[in-house]
């Protein structure tokens, strides 16, 4: 989650040299390299710092985007973006997901906001209505078409997640792109016209052929890969036998809460949801 001392703001230019800096080359975040003895950061031990904007600009040249994206405890937060290139000496590029636990938790989620704004910026270079090159609005997350004046906003895609309970068991599934051995709760995007509760019932039926009841709200979380808003529910099993949806679900099983498989990263709402339900079931 974004830290409570952070306020989102936007300006299409930022020249504050003292700003907290979230810098990207393509899809990867650029961070100062760790000293050699710390090259394998331990999870839950924040060890990365944020880079200095001026040093990066002198090494890489003017960025394609240099935006103010908010402030944290009164300090400006600045997004720098270069579409391609290598990390300059003394820096390294990282997949954002991989630095969770090694970057301050608040900075991780501000970086997650930055990453979504990078996606928005890259996806709306040209107007979808008339094809003219767009430019960023000065004080709003919108790219504007100078020809037809259409405004193109950052996309946020709502997606549901649902953890299904049956006795002491949880229904967990894996999709073909998961790392080997990892299982998670079911998830899927909300269709236009659908309420998220309807999405839960539809996705559960499509993906594993089960019926569920007693939907309970758990929590929501932004997931910037690339721009999802995860809406997490808990549900009880109501009937049906597991049939996995071809190509979407490689395997789905009922797991006893004392024999769970590998679970998703601690940065994910899936992990929090599963751990919450397991501790609730143990306490019952
Ligand atoms: Zn246009």
From TrEMBL:
Domain Nudix hydrolase: 153-277
Example GO molecular function: metal ion binding
Pfam families: NUDIX, NUDIX-like, Zn_ribbon_NUD
Enzyme class: hydrolase
Keyword NAD found: yes
Keywords carried by this UniProt record: Hydrolase, Magnesium, Metal-binding, NAD
Cofactor: Mg(2+)
Documented EC number(s): 3.6.1.22
PANTHER family: NAD(P)H PYROPHOSPHATASE NUDT13, MITOCHONDRIAL (PTHR11383:SF3), NUCLEOSIDE DIPHOSPHATE-LINKED MOIETY X MOTIF 13 (PTHR11383)
NCBIfam families, A to Z: PRK00241.1 (NF001299)
Record's protein name: NAD(+) diphosphatase
Gene: nudC
